[in-house]
Amino acid sequence: KMRGLLVLATLACFAAAQHQALIDYLEQRLLAIEGRITLWHEQTARYASELRDLKLQMLSQLENLDKEKEALRTSLDGVGTRVDRVERELDYLETQNGVQPCVDVDDKLIEQQVTLVQEKQKAKYIRLSDCSDMISSIKAMKILKRVGGPKGMWTKDVGQGSGKVYVFNGTDEDTVYQFSSAQDFTRSPGTSLSTGVKLPLAWRGTGHVVYNNHLYYLSQAEEIQVIKYNIANGSVTDAAVFPAQDHVPVYSLNPETMMDLAVDEEGLWVVYATQQNERHISLAKMDAASLGIEQMWDTNCPRENAEAAFVICGTLYVAYNTRQPGRSRIQCVFDVNGMVSNEEAPLVYFPKRYGAHSSLKYNPQEQLLYAWDDGYQILYKLVLKKKQEI
Ligand SMILES: *[C@@H]1O[C@H](CO)[C@@H](O)[C@H](O)[C@H]1NC(C)=O
Ligand SMILES: *[C@@H]1O[C@H](CO)[C@@H](O)[C@H](O)[C@H]1NC(C)=O
């Protein structure tokens, strides 16, 4: 019986102990849950306050946005009024000037820019040259007479001048034939109606000009000289050694002519060649009063097969012998203003003639070329046109 009681007590004890453990366990769980609830409460409170702050911020920003929107609306209204006004003004202008579509406005702008470019080019062009003519074709040819040898040159005084005609027969003489007019020259048997002008030094080649009552002729002793000779009182006004060394004949088909002078609307030019640029012809602008050189250019015109050249409005035209017998043509041009290129230059053939040109002298007043062709004195009437403006 006693043992039975002991067992019961032990069992009760056991049960009690188990109960206590359960209570302890539950208490711990509750504590843990409470802790988490507290934590959660804290977090919620924090979130709530953050949310509140955010809401406040949002509110104030919304207010700002409202204000900005208002300001924007006001300024947009202002712009709208101005657009309206501009539109009204445009309408008014259109009624004044007729309707001009937008495309035309663009074209106008481009046109204006093109005009601007053209003005600039013109300015550059005017600075270098006052005239804008270029050769278009040879309109007519007139053989005036035959006097003298195969080589020589003849010309009228190309200045504002006398109208007198001068004949340089040969390439190494000292007496020029002077005729008082072209008619006298034509009707004169030989040189009988002329007066002789005897020069202090013999000329060399065919590169001379007569300009404003002065002979500008080339003489060669040790050096090539340009001599300016006053015809009226028979005195040498000036003489200058051309400032280039190692001259070579400027045209391969006329080896006696080392240098060639030319007169155009701009004044006096020198066509020459040196060993430094042996294969090509060079050009220089010479001051007719002082014989000083103003500017020099190397051209792309070859000396090979060239027979003569002349200048019109700052453009050099070089005549070459062609393979066809008795024909020569202008085959190379050089424009100091860069307005005429070889591609743009017209193909100009000289009419059929006798031998070879030993000189071609341009007269700007008459638009005539005075040519010497195997002793024949020939006039070519030129047709000029305006240089193309881009
Ligand atoms: C022209 O010069 C040649 C030599 O080149 C000469 O034979 C001829 O007689 C000269 N003629 C005149 C008219 O001077
Ligand atoms: C020739 O005429 C020019 C210009 O008229 C003058 O300057 C020069 O002195 C004259 N010469 C002679 C030798 O008379």
UniProtKB/TrEMBL annotation:
Cellular component aspect of the GO annotation:
extracellular space
Tell me one GO biological process term.
Answer: signal transduction
Give the main location: secreted
- Domain Olfactomedin-like per the UniProt entry, residue ranges: 130-386
Compartments annotated for it: namely: Secreted
Q: List the disulfide bonds.
A: C131-C313
- Can the keyword Nucleus be found in this entry's annotation? no
**Which ranges of the sequence are coiled-coil?**
48-75
Secretion signal, residue range per the UniProt entry: 1-17
Which keywords fit this entry according to its UniProt record?
Answer: Coiled coil, Developmental protein, Disulfide bond, Glycoprotein, Secreted, Signal
Recorded hits in InterPro entries, A to Z, give: Gal_Oxase/kelch_b-propeller, Olfac-like_dom, Olfactomedin-like_domain
Per the record's keyword annotation, is Oxidoreductase included, yes or no?
A: no
Family, according to the entry, reads as follows: Belongs to the OLFML3 family.
Protein name, per record:
Olfactomedin-like 3b
Tell me the organism.
Tetraodon nigroviridis (Spotted green pufferfish)
